[in-house]
Amino acid sequence: MFYERLKQLCKDRGTSVTRMCHDLGLSSANMSNWKAGRMPSYTSLKQIADYLGLPADVLIAKGYVEPVNPKNGVKVPVVGIVHAGVPIEAVQDILDFEEITPELAASGEFMALRVSGDSMEPRICAGDVVIVRRQPTAENGDVCVVMVNGDEATLKKIQRTDDGIMLIPFNSNYAPMFFTNKQIEQLPVTILGKVIENRQKF
Predict the structure, then answer these.
(1) In angstroms, what CA-CA distances link 113 with 42, 52, 157, 160?
(2) CATH top-level class for 74-199?
(3) Which residues are catalytic?
(4) pTM for this structure?
């Protein structure tokens, strides 16, 4: 269970879960949820991993799933829902796990997001899971998860111009969203990661 593993890791480092939550500004409700068997959000998981001096994937592997054979796949968390239409909050509790190849896992830090909405149809549909490599930049034409206002995300093809960035849907019923360079800085608008693979769910 994640909480028991976390408690031992804190003890090994001369601290406690209560102290860690205080230091990280996490509420007591978080600890109650973990005791009840719930997984932390991806953001909290990263905070905890950094606090304990562990890579996030190691904390996940030891806290949530059985060790995997290196010849087989590597599990990455499905950390939330990304809307393929109007931006919504992206990172929520860990929902599930998807498996990627060790070769792909070695090329960067990955997560998976479940898609909601239809603005990227017919190529990416509601319910699909996209495998995302976390990176702050991308090339024109890449499909990316883009953060808007710091805590909302949308899935779109990107097109940079001298004046800003355009987020382009595949579904012609939706209009592209354009953000000026000033808006990119002030909102802000940032690239969270590039979609490497789409897994359709039936």
Answers:
(1) 11, 25, 16, 24
(2) mainly beta
(3) 119, 156
(4) 0.64
